[in-house]
Amino acid sequence: MRLLLPVLAAVVVAGFAAGQVAAGPPAALPTKLRAALAAPGIGPGRTGAIAVDLATGQVVFAHNSAEPFVPASNEKLPVTYAALRLLGPAYRFPSEVRGQGALESDGTWRGNLVLKGYGDPTLSMTKLQRLARRIAGLGITHVTGSIIGDESFFDKVRTGPGWKASFYIEESPPLSALVVDRDWTGKRYTTNPAYTAADDLRKLLIKAGVKVEGRARSFHAGGKLLALVVSAPLSAILHAVDADSDNFTAELLLKELGAVAGSGGTSADGAAVVRQVLSESGVPLEGVRIADGSGLSSLDRLTPQAIVAILQDCWRDPAVRSTLVDAMAVAGRSGTLEHRLLGPRTRGVVIGKTGTTDLASVLSGFVRGSYAFSVMENGSPVPWWTARAAQDRFVQLLAAST
Predict the structure, then answer these.
(1) CA-to-CA distance for 60 and 401, rounded, in angstroms?
(2) Which residue in 171, 176, 206 sits closest to 190, CA to CA?
(3) How many domains is the chain partitioned into structurally?
(4) Same domain assignment for residues 103 and 139
(5) Does 147 share its domain with 221?
(6) Exposed end of the chain (fewer CB within 10 Å): N or C?
(7) Of 231, 257, 292, at which residue does a domain stop?
(8) For the segment 92-150, what is each residue's pLDDT rounded down to a tens digit?
(9) DSSP labels for 325-393?
(10) What's the rounded Cα separation, in Å, for the pair 44 and 264?
(11) Which of 171, 206, 231 represents a domain boundary (last residue)?
(12) Cβ partners under 8 Å of residue 340, min gap 6
């Protein structure tokens, strides 16, 4: 089998390069890029790529750039883009304690307390402790009712559309607008996030000296605002989405877009918002399908030209550019590119977003502030090791040309 690999590679290279240039002078950059994409086990028809000069907007290279591909975690790029455009880098996710009832002169809160979530993927026990102390600081020493967890800002669907059954828990904990410590209880993942969060707050209130008569419950509730905590700004949270490729955070961000700027806190509503933002920004949408926020869905489709159009638009806006660049992985240094592109021409100067599933291997990003690029490879399954080698060769050539 080892003897067959060089032969197969030669055949694939021929498939990419045939008819491009005649023999003679050294190959020009486009021809070299085309040859770099040759990957054993991935035919030319299963690969799409594009590279654009950021200064001029000129397309330096394109192959199947308008064809739709399964994007894997590159799906996070349009979600990030829509969030930056609609919510802004300074956006913070709130979490509230609301009161149903009234405070009596002896410190008794006659009624329920409601912990309401608004999709903060970073809500933690530390922040719940802060809320408990603030409730105690209001002079409340006794709660006659229950502690209610309200996750109604989103729907109660715990996974994304088009996910394999194994992705639940394995690739993302249960989705909810009210999640503490990413659903981890210390021993296992909870499948009832809102109830668990309410019970956590109940215990913390007791530790803070507040007697609570009722038990934890979960349902849609009202009440007046008593205490509030907020997340770090979106700009800080996006590092988990794009550099570390965190599926859970990306899915909550998609639902947040639906809840804040669309018809509701569902994946479908968030996807509609993302598509609208892309359309209004002039991103070519033929063949594009937004199903989830993480790219775990087999229903997602992006084209290389759509991804690069997003990257170009971000690059033209200095505020958005700095946030996106800070959020993405850096070759040889951070995130999912920490151990890739380690050479002196690429380490620290290639900023990218990777994507890997059984069906797709993708790398998109920026090279030295000179190029925006995207390489998308699909298969059933895709041989990711040869796919990544092709992506790295492609990017190395771009870096060498600057």
Answers:
(1) 11
(2) 176
(3) 2
(4) yes
(5) yes
(6) N
(7) 231
(8) 999 999 999 999 999 999 999 999 999 999 999 999 999 999 999 999 999 999 999 99
(9) HHHSEETTTSGGGTTS--STTTTTTEEEEEEE-SSEEEEEEEETTTEEEEEEEE-TT--HHHHHHHHHH
(10) 41
(11) 231
(12) 331, 332, 388, 392
